[in-house]
Amino acid sequence: MGGAETAGQKRSSGWRSSVRLRLMVLAAITVAATLTVAGILLVVAFERHLERRLGLELDTRWTQLAAALTIDGTGAARLSHDPGDPRYDQPYSGIYYEIGSPGRGEVRSRSLWDAELGQTAIDAAVAAGEPIEVDGPNGSVLYLLSKPVSVAHASGERSYTISVAIDHVEIETLASEFAADVRNALIAIALVLLAGTWAQISLGLGPLATLRRELDQIRRGSKERMEGTFPDEVGPLVSDLNGLLDRQDDLIRKARERAGTLAHGLKTPLTIIQAEARRLQRSGAIEAAKTLRDQVAAMNGHVERELSRARLQGKAVAAGHATAVADTVGRIVALERRMPRGGELDWIMEVDSRLRVRMDADDFGEVLGNLLDNARKWADGTVRVSATETDGTVSLSVDDDGPGIPADMRLAMMERGTKAGARVEGSGLGLAIVSDVLEAYETGLHLETAPSGGLRARFEIEGCAAATPSTEAAAPVREPVAIRPAAE
Predict the structure, then answer these.
(1) Upper half-sphere CA count for residue 157 (Cβ side, 13 Å)
(2) Transmembrane residues, as ranges (predicted)?
(3) Which residue among 10, 157, 358, 408 sits deepest, i.e. has the most Cβ atoms within 10 Å of its Cβ?
(4) What single-letter DSSP state applies at residue 112?
(5) Could you give phi then psi for residue 404, rounded to 5 degrees?
């Protein structure tokens, strides 16, 4: 009960079942994609910046070497002073220089050891006019700058090529360290963004959560209409839902009024036909009178059941209603005590006054009225009404100590027009009407053997919390209202 999905409704599974999770998944994908692209662009920009800085450093080193380049008395190229970087003297330190004329190296840094930069690489760098990447000693990659320079000598100017190189691994190391720092920073930013997104989504969906709580309270019977202040985007929906509930109540009220009008409209013709049947019987037309009486009884049965159906609210319509069980039982018992044999019976009510059911008051009265009226007709001395609640479901039973109904006849007794016998008056519609009403609430009537040996009529209906819990042990008994007990 109460957990079934609405017809036509399909519930998604996993993250698709929650708008909040859907938005968070989309936000997480967006944040991850955005920060990933940002991280890549930052690392690429940093590498380019390092390459530009490295190019400037190579140009500075080239200028220092060009300023120190001289030709000694033997005509050999020499450096007038030490370049000043100790790494030039460390083998394979990653910082190198080479000075030579075309086809012949003359001055090299000790860091090159027994390796050479290579004339092909030097020629390519000279042609490029800017630093390029070339293969270096021991499988390394160098960033090489080579430019020609002219040095004055007694025999005339001599042309040399000064080449300066730095191992590219330094750029890679710095870029790798920068990428790690950027990754950690972006992870922290992503966490902050996702936390902010979650807060924003929760705040944005807050009115929907409030709307859901309001609807749940209406469904449970705690409220009849949605109340509170809602944002402009949700306010019209709340107004439309309240208007729909008002319209629904109005339609039900008009339907019941039309049902009552129909009942009054049929009452007079049926009464005249019954009087005509009696006149025919007195005149000796017994068969004709019996035929009329049977047809009138059948018409009464049809009218009675259809009017009962027209008055039904049903589970969906009565979602916002909560009916006090003990109060309704007390009112109907007070009415039954005034009916034939009702004052001679012992009526035992074992109902907690705090129990409430999610059922329209008129529908609940229709069910109890028929069951209690049926028990009054068949009981020998005692009728017991009890109600208990378990896990939100109220189980209500009406027991009598009469002859009961054999097990093989109980299903037939809930069919229209079926009577248990001629001992009592009635049209045999009572239990059929009860079954119709309970069917509208997605439950059913169960006929069992009572502990006293008589009949127990039991049904279960969804309960709801009382608006104001009570500590009274018994329900007040009021004057009867217009709840008409039907035949058994």
Answers:
(1) 6
(2) 21-46
(3) 358
(4) G
(5) 75, -175
